[in-house]
Amino acid sequence: MLKLRLRRCGRKQRTIYRIVAIDVRSRREGKPLRKVGFYDPINNHTYLNFPDILYFLEKGAQPTETVQDISKKSGFLHLHNSALIKANSTNAIQKRGVG
User: Fold this and answer.
1) What keywords sit in the KW lines (predicted)?
2) 4, 56, 74, 93: which could form a disulfide with 99 (CB 3.0–4.6 Å)?
3) Tell me: the pLDDT tens digits for 6-59?
4) In a domain, 57, yes or no
């Protein structure tokens, strides 16, 4: 099972976090499958790679609570939900043979 979680980087008293897709059984500092963003809590900067995050979410990756809160603040969670609804409605139309 995959998770989207934070990986600690930076130096002492000046940490930043990378948002990574990683296997659940790995350690926090283990080797990630892919880096999908970063979060700097001191300067309050966030960068999210939306296509990569969507790819892993469609594959069944579960975001941790902290990553979910970060994505919600950036407005990505709303985008993700509407993208899933659009994809599901497209699949339903194709299964019925209407489009």
Assistant:
1) Chloroplast, Plastid, Ribonucleoprotein, Ribosomal protein
2) 93
3) 998 999 999 999 999 998 887 767 788 899 999 999 998 999 998 999 899 888
4) yes
